[in-house]
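Journal club prep, notes for RB
We'll compare a predicted complex against what the paper describes. Inputs for the 1-O-alpha-D-glucopyranosyl-D-fructose case:
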Amino acid sequence: MKRTWWKESVVYQIYPRSFKDSNGDGIGDIQGIIEKLDYIKNLGVDVIWLSPVYESPNDDNGYDIADYYRIMDDFGTMEDWEELLDEMHARDMKLIMDLVVNHSSDEHQWFQEAKKSKDNPYRDYYIWRPGKDGKEPNNWKSTFSGSAWEYDEKTDEYYLHIFSKKQPDLNWENPKLRQEVYDMMKWWLDKGIDGFRMDVINFISKVPELPDAPNPKGQKYVSGSRFFKNGPRVHEYLQEMNREVLSKYDVMTVGEMPGVDVEEAKKYTNLERNELQMVFQFEHMDLDHDSDKWDYKPLDLKDLKDSISRWQEGLHGTGWNSLYLNNHDQPRVVSRFGNDKEYRVESAKMLATFLHMLQGTPYIYQGEEIGMTNVQYESIEEYKDIEILNMYKEKVIDGGEAHDKVMESIYVKGRDNARTPFQWNDQEHAGFTTGEPWMKINSNYPTINAEQAVNDENSVYHYYRQLIQLRKTHEIIVYGDYRLILPEDDQIYAYMRTLSDEKLLVVTNFSDESVPFKLPEEESFQAKGLLISNYDVDGVEDCSSFTMKPYEARVYKGS
Ligand code: TEU
Ligand code: CA
């Protein structure tokens, strides 16, 4: 298998608004990140993925970009950003930037021009259609509630927005638009960045007819995703982007791709096809809800095994996996697949073990490394996320559903769980800001914070450091192949990694019970030692059978 730096790296994601405020305005910023670079470096990570810092009216916290060449005032200046890049490179860390080009902000100059008239040269940078029978051009639903179309009175047409109406979709069919994107990418790469995370990049090619989606339940609007996920020209566009831009630089790329399956991912990440290196897939993030993200159902561990194993085996030797359990769009994993009450530390470590021992490039989302948890605020006023607020309005204010019931789904699924300010210490406002934080801080910061974690050698933080160190010193963790064992067990997730004559046995208990582990007879495994564990294990006891404590994790090396 081809060895490359981005396969051997560990990435840390920063959501700048919530990371560290340096000037007391209550909003995290670039100088705040610079202050904390040593903290991140000490964790052992090699790469930072920075969520968008470009000029934006912040309808979707920077995922609505008004100027791709400028830094948002809230976050600082271009000089601040350049200082950040220099400080990172001085520490031998790489920076990957968020590339949000499925849509722009409606405040972007292109859109301002486009809506002036039907024959404006920028009109075709976006996707416009006349109405149908006095209604929207089709029945697609926006990810953030309501129709995916917004009517523009002046030109009597609608424009498409898969996300908010302040995020009009860009028209990739237009070669001029594509060239603008490539030029912009080169501009940033020439400034010295080390790659891109590409926002919903598998949505950029739409089926040109934009047909109505099937609507068996007769809903007002339904998802049109089958007509834009992995659409007809997406591979052509990415190959073009690769040819024009990426192939000229030694950079890392990861495409965020809701609705991608293993077969498609093989195409996106097979290096011989010259597209991307990795994708963020969502299968494992979609296991604990029904077709509507707000309809929670508990995780069945067997579904997780089935999904992860398909991805591990499917991309082995063909493409490359990204590994993540958290990001700015997902609830905190320790509250989700772990237990943030009695076993917060244990389960956070167990989940980290499970993830970091897989094949792929691991991503850590800010706060994950100290075991930050979900929040539950009583009032909708405390929430800031457009997805949450629009859904609440649709269901409660306009739809008459019960406040309490809708809040329950926000507690388990809302994106703001991940967006509360980083908990640095037990001081006022968790050390995040000296002013009023832009979003309410999780009240558990007096016990869960970075200062505590750094000073406590048994903390989640130190466990992550160990996991990262192991990856750097054991090739098998990066390159070994993966095989699931005990597929039928619904509490223990166990797997074997193999690289020539070396093996790793990874055993994790996803339950809050003590459960027996027994290595299947047909497995030959000679244990040589314990690599890491989240409870004390006496010596290297025989690892063919033992009792696992709640959320216990053990990794044995052997042959
Ligand atoms: O997210 C794309 C996306 O579809 C989801 O992750 C989405 O946030 C979630 O499933 C909604 O239920 C990306 C960004 O990560 C997200 O923050 C942006 O809001 C979105 O694109 C639009 O740019
Ligand atoms: Ca600030």
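Talking point for the session: The chain has 15 helices and 20 strands.
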